[in-house]
Task: inverse folding
């Protein structure tokens, strides 16, 4: 081969190699799949904290609305064996909770924290419950924007008188910086001993009254303002035996006041009931703060239709003008 032919062969070979680098690979080779990576979904915006209530003027009392509400067999949708509430019923209960406009609400007959939030929703409300696994607990709901805080004490187990099926006392302190604190016991007493002492349930009920008096006397000895509120399951008239046991002024601060005076008839389901069995009871100190108190009835009037969709109980509330703390 001449030098010119050899040179031409080298050039042709180099040209073919160069073109081969630009040609597609053999179709027999599997191409790598193309993976499209979608943009990640944006994190949902956190729900805004509710706007706090205006602070009281310096030196002025701070208004605290305490309430109690037995929300019959309140549970998550479809979870209750007794009440078959639907979405509209929970919405209606929530409307009544808004109308109540309370700062701190003791609720009875509820399955737990998540059940309470069906009526008192997050993030506007925080909820704590007694430390007991039951479909009938005592809990407390606090309106976050109210400026008031709730600090739990240990459950008052003695109120259950050794029966795990009975409710404990939910013991807590309501406070606000710069103002007097108030000790609170939320209760749901044994049902069935509404008057007198001869019904089958009365033995247990009066055992609970002994324990409740112990709690009251301990707080009275400490000389701290206190309230006991909840479903007493008792018509506590001025001459009622259970009331006289509690309201004995021994010690002196155990001179008690019902926020709604004895003798008034209840506006809750008036075609069915006449007497209060849900009460807010105040010691001498807290009674001096009492500005107003009432019961909030429902717009609905047919008890038989609504007792398990709303409740057979209506909320009771009390407004307290809490003074600034002594320095």
Result:
């Amino acid at each position: 081969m001449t030098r010119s032919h050899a040179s031409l062969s080298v050039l042709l070979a180099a040209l073919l190699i160069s073109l081969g680098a630009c040609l597609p690979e053999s179709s027999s080779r599997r191409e790598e799949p193309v993976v499209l990576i979608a943009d990640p979904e944006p994190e949902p915006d956190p729900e805004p904290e509710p706007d706090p209530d205006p602070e009281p003027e310096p030196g002025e009392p701070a208004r605290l609305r305490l309430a109690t509400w037995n929300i019959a067999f309140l549970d998550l949708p479809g979870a209750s064996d007794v009440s078959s509430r639907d979405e509209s019923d929970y919405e209606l209960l929530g409307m009544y909770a808004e109308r109540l406009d309370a700062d701190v609400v003791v609720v009875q007959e509820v399955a737990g924290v998540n059940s309470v939030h069906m009526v008192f929703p997050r993030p506007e409300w925080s909820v704590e419950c007694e430390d007991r696994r039951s479909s009938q607990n005592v809990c407390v709901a606090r309106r976050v924007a109210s400026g008031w805080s709730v600090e739990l004490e240990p459950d008052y187990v003695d109120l259950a008188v050794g029966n795990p099926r009975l409710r404990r006392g939910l013991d807590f302190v309501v406070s606000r910086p710069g103002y007097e604190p108030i000790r609170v016991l939320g209760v749901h007493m044994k049902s069935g001993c509404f008057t007198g002492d001869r019904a089958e349930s009365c033995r247990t009920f009066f055992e609970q009254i002994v324990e409740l008096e112990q709690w009251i006397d301990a707080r009275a000895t400490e000389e701290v303002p206190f309230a006991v509120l909840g479903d007493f399951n008792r018509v506590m008239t001025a001459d009622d035996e259970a009331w006289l046991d509690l309201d004995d002024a021994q010690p002196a601060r155990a001179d008690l006041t019902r926020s709604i005076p004895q003798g008034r008839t209840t506006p809750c389901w008036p075609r069915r009931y006449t007497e209060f069995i849900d009460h807010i009871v105040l010691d001498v100190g807290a009674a001096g703060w009492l500005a107003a108190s009432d019961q909030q009835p429902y717009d609905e009037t047919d008890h038989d239709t609504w007792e398990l969709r709303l409740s057979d109980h209506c909320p009771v509330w009390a407004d307290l003008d809490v003074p600034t703390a002594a320095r």
Remarks:
- Confidence is low (pLDDT under 50) at residues 1-43.
